[in-house]
Design brief:
The protein is mainly alpha-helical. The chain is 67% helix and 0% strand. The protein has 25 helices and no strands.
Length: 508
Amino acid sequence: MATQTTASCTGSTLLQPISEIINLPLDQVNFVACQLFALLMAVWFRVYLHPSKTSPFIRHVVATLLGFYLALFCFGWYSLHFLVQSGLSYGVMVFAGLEHMHKYCFIVTLGYLILCQITRVYVFDYGMYSADFTGPMMVITQKITCMAFEIHDGLTKREEQMSPSQQYLAIRRMPSLLEYLSYNCNFMGILAGPTCSYNDYMGFIEGTCYELRHLENANGKENGKYKQSEPSPKNDVISKLCTCAISLAIYLSLCKLIPVERAIDDDFVSSTPFHLQVIYLYVAMLALRPKYYFVWTLADAINNAAGFGFNGYNKDGSPRWDLISNLRILDIEFATSFKMFLDNWNIQTALWLKRVCYERCPINPTAATFLLSAMWHGVYPGYFLTFLTGIAMTMAARSIRHNIRPYFLVSDTYKFIYDVITWVGTQVAISYTVVPFVLLAVGPSLKFYRSWYFCLHLLCLLVVFALPAKRRHPQAKGQQDNLQVNQADYNRSHSTTDNNCNQKDKTT
């Protein structure tokens, strides 16, 4: 197996013997090895190139060069696409007028990504679904487009024209080429992200992301302990590495035992009762998720080990290192709504979609956001089927929550029953929705939906047309408003990137 995948790996073949021994594709072995090397370099970067010892210029140079080295090791000459995409976009930022620069930059950056994805899928290898060079380009696309919009906000808009989060994220001067490349291609996030805001990254490089947080603890009271010492990420890094090890073990143990493809096997469909098919689909999708848990948690641990990701203190005074975390595993597995699942899955991508599309699109922002997400993910038809289904699921879930949930809030028992029912419904709906995302092609995806008689599609349409957009009973309006306020508070407390070290002062 490893030998067969060598041809599809354009990076270094130094680890080919290890790939053959453990029977995993060479590109995946290279990816994991580079991430582990990045973890060691992150510790070294934090200790020996600390902002108190080294200038921002040196930190930028080292972070960028290490990032380019990892990219070359993993992807070979294909990593030049990272520079081409970044260079084209920077040229647009510099030479295009500020009024429309962000739009041109968005089109050029996303267009180049889609062109590379089309080439990779339809010219080289349609079925190659592992560590490929367009993965890092997806993260770079997020960073470049976010930066373009933030520069546009900072240089063309007045304070009153922006929301509090946009005011904080706004970039007040054009970044230098070194700062730009360091932000896009640093060794901590070149392979797996996560996306972060430019201002947060500059605060990390310059060592200013701890200062205001040292002045007060979570209760707003002065605490000399935090004034004197910089918070250590050691405990959080160790915890996240343990999560990585467990996730990887679960994935390698179960992914081949419970393949999603079996859900469309004719013998399985004809001989298995429908309720067991539902359970199998849920378990198969459950076995796939640890792969993403491993990749994103390891990327988060690398950033934390370098000193990036500090997000204030918990109520007990312990430091929080979740500024750029990409997922919350327990909230995902116990999500009781479609929205709650999406809010805790690939968090930084959701924030990117919100900032560049949902908050700025004047026409049907929900549909536009799902469409952009599909285009960004790639050109496999299954992606578009998944996100089109996701639009219907989101609209139906919203109607159910607005119209039915208030009736279950009369007692804790009723609310518990509602939570159990919606948890089951959410897990089944998510599994049903993402099947095309895994199968990739149109034929197998439609075969699966036909075997389920498109039941959830039809149910979503029925719910959307049967239930009103607003609740029928106005007497519950006050109660629902309180729920919305609580949900908004929840979102604000968990939107980690929007709440950096000095966000509290700005939003107050």
